[in-house]
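TOKENISED FOLD:
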Amino acid sequence: MKAKKILALLLALTLIPALAACGKPKTPLLVMGNSDVPVGQYTQKILAFYALDEEALAKVGKITYGTNVKEVTTQVKEGSVNCGVVYCTDAFSAGLTVVDNATAEMCGQVIYPAAVMKNSEHPAEAQAFLDYLSSPEAMEIFKAVGFAPVGDTVPAAAAAETGKVELIVFAAASMTETLTQIQGLYQELHPNVTLVYNFDSSGTLKTQIQEGAECDVFISAGQKQMNQLDINANPEVNTDQLDFVLEGSRLNLLENKVVLVVPDGNPGKIESFDGLAAALKK
């Protein structure tokens, strides 16, 4: 009898971890951005489109998170998840395989607004740089990685520069490669201007500006973060009535696309957003 009890105990100790493992996937199905960054907000819209409960899926380990889009691409590239939702520009930069594109019906348009900040010490030079980003030369760089212009490209006007100027540009992390490339070209044309970039999630950048960080130009990956700083935006969005955007400088600069990406070899066999939704519902 004693031997049977010992055997039963050993079986229980063996089965309990195995049964517990059955309740959770070994590898998270999906990595997405946190809710305070635009790529995470677009992903939330996609989950809502498929009537998926994000909180419940995260609780059982099917969803994991990145604080910005770069962290999302890293997790996919390392194969620690079966798929991720990022911008097409980040998929291009990271060399990730895109298996599907989100439609406007799923998450709306992905528009990047840009503006000169009201507290800029060099508003004319800041506006000249913003104008350059709408020029054909800059747009060729943006288009090469998957961005699309929202409006017509406009030849950039030369700025009158009388001395050394340092422009501080806050930009969404998904623009790191393109703006870094543009930096060299712009400074060849404007040797008196030094561009200093701060790349991070749009939500983090917005908070830094709100808390008094020096910033001449802000380029957000979503309208929400810019609206929260713009006194002319809907007061239901700009609830604190913040007034950081220089009047007349704001424009919709670029359009991006939200895509579904997978690691090399697609180990999770996720082929589309429909397929992802089906897998998350299991």
Remarks:
- The domain at 110-256 is CATH 3.10.105.10 (Dipeptide-binding Protein; domain 3).
- The mean pLDDT is 89.
